[in-house]
Design goal:
Elements (H helix, E strand, L loop, with lengths): L7 E4 L5 E5 L21 H12 L2 E5 L12 H7 L2 H17 L2 E9 L5 E5 L2 E4 L2 E4 L9 H16 L4 E4 L25 H11 L3 E9 H4 L3 H14 L9 H8 L21 H6 E10 L2 E10 L2 E10 L5 E6 L10 E2 L2 E5 L5 E12 L8 H6 L2 E13 L9 E11 L2 E15 L8 E8 L2 E15 L15 E13 L2 E14 L2 E6 L8 E14 L5 E11 L5 E9 L9
Helix pairs in contact: 3-5, 4-7, 4-8
Length: about 575
């Protein structure tokens, strides 16, 4: 009998069902952007909860960091956890001997604030027809897909939860643990792995991974609803109300791989130059008293690729929606949950109805795992109308007004404020430091970007692993250029800006320049984000509002690039 390590919690049940949470631990080392992956928060306790309710067997890693040992990677399992395939083979073979069949469900987390579960079985759903994903093999039978997964899609849809097959995480990579359940390993040198491949090949074992969006893992009504749907599907007999056409289609649904079946681009993978050229974005940002709002949707050609909504109702707090699931038949500028609707005269509406993740801090993106751990789900409804100052204008940014209602966690705001919105191509800074300043006014507004930059002082740390608010006590001087939009006119403008930031805020001084008067403002509501940069660097970006005494608040975006090697030069 295999002896697993003491840190793997095992709950043994009587059903022929194994639930496995490989990434339920936590990271304790300082985050390194581009290197560390986020552990799948709340999957350990959810797996325990489901196993107890279902009388199923559970294998739960709730302590080991996936960055130290990734139990979902075959290469790491071979080197450092050979006991895992042995344990799975013993458990599943015993279940098959007693019940004839068995199921393995691997519970993962998808860090999108959408009510979605993507099922990975080595296949991709192409409008009702499952096609083997390029490079992988199918880990479940067509009968399993028809009787279980199609049924789960129906049950979840009734609770406003989308269940997809291979839309983002098809589990087709040759190093994914589920690929042990394919013909590729039937002659493996490891006897336990050969057993897993044989049981799956005989149709005795079905293996699937469930990538659960944040609302399906965090405590709340969506997690409860999805748990009930899973229980209905995996602990009861097949349902007679599944249409016969669906069952028939399912039994013949798995086709050979084609180039069109390649998995979608993973987060962090590079885009090609062609896709970069076609990337563009539509967004809206506004300040209404103490309420800060920002939303954008990215698109590739005419198809949306992802979206976000950020609301900060008061200093020190923010709420976030992020969406990565895109339905092919949705209209442009739609991410399930969030949509932009065009109206006559160049205006458009922002509508959102669903959960957001509420944070008691403005810094959750500095260390996403630590930040997510502090978030709680709240119900949100947004209905905002943007009216441009220049109807039918076509410049990349449009100034105007926003009006409507926001309900956030039971608290309601009536919004009426100046705003900036528009569609832009993908704009990546060519050099750092980089600054963008947007200044709405009564008749339109000014948008400026940096042409030259000098960092005049830096008394805080600048290393790439630093986890506090970046850019403490730093001072910059920028030469800015851009355009003023007023009515139907547009003129080129320029100015010099001095910016001083600390962890608590900052000051911005804009010297009088071409078409611009001198301004002084206070930087507030600093929201820092860190992401991988070029050649191992880390890009720190600060988003903030700038309040002025006698004019509407403006927007600041400041980005700097940091190298882990002190000798590496910034461009």
């Amino acid at each position: 009998m295999t002896t697993p390590p003491s840190w793997l919690a095992i709950h043994r049940g009587n059903r022929p069902l194994v639930l496995f949470a490989p990434h339920g631990g936590r990271r304790h080392a300082p985050r390194e952007p581009g290197k560390h992956k986020v552990n799948d928060l709340h999957t350990a306790e959810l797996t325990r909860e489901l196993a107890a309710r279902w009388d199923a067997t559970a294998l739960v890693n709730d302590s080991r960091d996936r960055n130290e040992l990734d139990l979902n990677r075959i290469s790491e399992v071979r080197r450092h956890a050979p006991w895992l395939p042995e344990l799975l083979a013993e458990l599943l073979a015993a279940m098959v001997d007693e019940h004839g069949t068995a199921t393995l469900l691997v519970i993962h987390g998808w860090n999108a604030v959408q009510t979605v579960c993507d099922v990975g079985m080595g296949v991709v759903d192409r409008e009702g027809r499952c096609v083997v994903a390029t490079g992988g093999g199918c880990t479940a039978s067509a009968d399993f897909i028809a009787s279980k997964i199609r049924r789960l899609q129906q049950r979840a849809a009734a609770a406003e939860i989308a269940v997809t097959i291979g839309a983002r995480y098809p589990a087709a990579h040759h190093n994914n643990l589920l690929q042990l359940f394919t013909a590729a390993h039937r002659d493996d040198e490891d006897g336990a792995i050969r057993t897993l491949a044989r049981l799956a090949g005989e149709g005795r074992v079905a293996a699937a991974q469930l990538e659960l969006g944040i609302p399906l893992r965090w405590p709340g009504r969506f997690r409860n609803a999805f748990a009930a749907a899973l229980e209905d599907v995996f602990t009861s007999a097949p349902d007679l109300d599944v249409p016969a056409t669906a069952r028939t289609r399912g039994t013949a649904t798995i086709a050979a791989p084609t180039t069109s079946a390649a998995p979608a681009r993973r987060a962090g993978e590079p885009r090609s130059a062609v896709s970069l050229a076609s990337m563009h974005s539509r967004g809206l940002q506004f300040v209404a008293g103490d309420l800060l709002g920002f939303t954008s949707i990215d698109a590739n050609g005419s198809r949306s690729t992802g979206g976000r909504l950020l609301l900060s109702p008061r200093p020190g707090t923010l709420a976030l929606f992020t969406g990565e699931l895109i339905r092919r038949r949705d209209p442009p500028w739609t991410v399930p949950g969030l949509r932009y609707v065009d109206e006559p005269g160049g205006g458009w509406r922002v509508r959102y109805d669903g959960p957001m993740l509420d944070f008691p801090t403005l810094t959750p993106f500095l260390d996403l795992e630590q930040g997510l751990a502090r978030g709680a789900l709240i119900e949100t409804a947004v209905d905002l109308a943007f009216t441009p100052a220049r109807p039918d204008a076509r410049e990349p940014r449009r100034f105007g007004t926003v009006a409507g209602t926001i309900v956030l966690g039971g608290e309601q705001w009536e919004v009426s404020a100046g705003a900036v919105a528009g569609e832009t191509g993908l704009l990546l800074p060519r050099r750092y430091p980089f600054c963008r300043l947007t200044l709405p006014d009564a008749g339109g507004g000014v948008e400026l970007t940096s042409t030259t930059a000098v960092e005049e002082s830096a008394t805080g740390g600048t290393d790439a692993t630093h986890t506090s608010v970046p850019l403490p006590d730093r001072r910059f001087r920028f030469e800015l250029a851009g355009a003023r939009h007023a009515g139907r006119s547009e003129e080129n403008v320029g100015a010099t800006c001095t910016l001083a930031l600390s962890a608590d805020g900052g000051r911005l001084e804009l010297a009088a320049g071409d078409g611009i008067s001198a301004l002084e403002g206070a930087c507030e509501r600093l929201v820092p984000v860190r992401r991988p940069g070029r050649a191992g660097a880390v890009v720190h970006t600060i988003f903030a509002i700038v309040r002025f005494a006698n004019r509407p608040s403006g927007w600041l975006e400041l980005a700097t690039e940091h190298h882990a090697d002190p000798g590496a030069a910034e461009e």
